[in-house]
Amino acid sequence: MILIKLLLAHILGDFFLQPKSWVKDKEKRGLKSSKLYLHVLIHIVLTSLLLWDITQWPIILTIGLSHLIVDALKLTLQKKKTKRIWFFMDQLMHVIVILICFFSFTYKEIEISTQLTEKSLLIAVCLLFLTIPTAIIMKTIFIKWNIEKLNKDSKSLADAGKYIGILERILVFIFIITNHWEAVGFLITAKSVFRFGDLKESKNRQLTEYILIGTLISFGIAIVVGIICSAII
Questions:
Q1: How confident is residue 188, by pLDDT bands cut at 50, 70 and 90?
Q2: pLDDT score for 157
Q3: 2-48 tens-digit pLDDT
Q4: Is 0.90 topped by the overall pTM?
Q5: Is 115 a residue whose pLDDT tops 60?
Q6: Dmax of the chain from CA atoms?
Q7: Residues near 95 by Cβ (< 8 Å), separated by ≥ 6?
Q8: Count of CB atoms within 10 A of residue 176's CB?
Q9: What is the pLDDT of residues 195-205, one digit of tens each?
Q10: Any residues with CB less than 8 A from the CB of 229 and at least 6 apart, and which?
């Protein structure tokens, strides 16, 4: 339960409560950016609220300080060419710190609400991860290719692909945890039918490969998260 709360605080603080303007300001000004310290403060506040136990201050302090150190290290050493690598290293280090805190400290858990069960929190963490965090992960993976050039003649809505991906991952996750694998196959088929027209008209092999890779990664992440969640539940 504690581990789930710590992961939830991290996802909310790093992906939902950190505007793009803050990220740009941190990358531009580095350690002089006030947004860096405000971002760390948000993580401390979120962790405190979710744990809701003053005796667990070592966990809160460790996560706050480690987040500042990891983010400062990333901003100092990150270059334009290594931005994608540092994104994953940054997230990995944060998760490692959370795991260390979970296994190292002795704590007494106090529930905020009787309705806040382990199962509901786990599902909430998974659903949140499959939205903006996964979208950012996929965007980071595709940095190595010039996607804007492939879509320069596209007349699609702004950010439409991102929201379609979020919706499809949520649906796949729900289908898996409710044990309706046939619905996952139907969703993949439906998306393939809609995409077939675009690919046929474009006659662009690179665009076809981009769409195929994106679809496989999106569905793959959702399936893996759904299987893990189902196994834990």
A1: confident
A2: 62
A3: 888 999 999 999 999 999 999 999 999 999 999 999 999 999 999 99
A4: no
A5: no
A6: 62
A7: 7, 10
A8: 21
A9: 666 555 555 66
A10: 122, 123, 126, 173, 176, 177
pLDDT value of position 111: 46
> Which pairs from 133-140 meet CB under 8 Å and 24+ separation?
133/11, 133/14, 133/15, 134/165, 134/166, 134/169, 134/218, 134/221, 134/222, 135/162, 135/165, 135/166, 136/15, 136/87, 137/221, 138/165, 138/214, 138/217, 138/218, 140/83, 140/84, 140/87, 140/88
Question: Do residues 233 and 142 lie in contact, with contact meaning Cβ atoms separated by under 8 Å?
Answer: no
Over residues 116-166, the pLDDT tens digits come to 577 888 999 999 999 999 999 988 888 877 666 665 655 666 677 788 889
Give dist(CA 84, CA 36) in Å, integer.
19
How far is CA 49 from its chain centroid?
21
Q: Which two tokens stand for residue 100?
A: 């260390």
Token duo for residue 23: 């990220």
Closest CA to 68 of 46, 50, 93: 93
All residues at 6 or more sequence positions from 130 whose CB lies less than 8 Å from its CB, including other chains: 166, 169, 170, 173, 221, 222, 225
| Structure tokens, 201 | 């008209």
Q: Which two tokens mark 197?
A: 């027209």
- Cβ partners under 8 Å of residue 78, min gap 6: 27, 86
CB neighbours (10 Å) of residue 207? 18
pLDDT value of residue 107: 46
Other residues' Cβ atoms within 10 Å of the Cβ of residue 83: 13
Gap between the Cα atoms of 149 and 56, Å rounded: 50
* Count, residues in the chain: 233
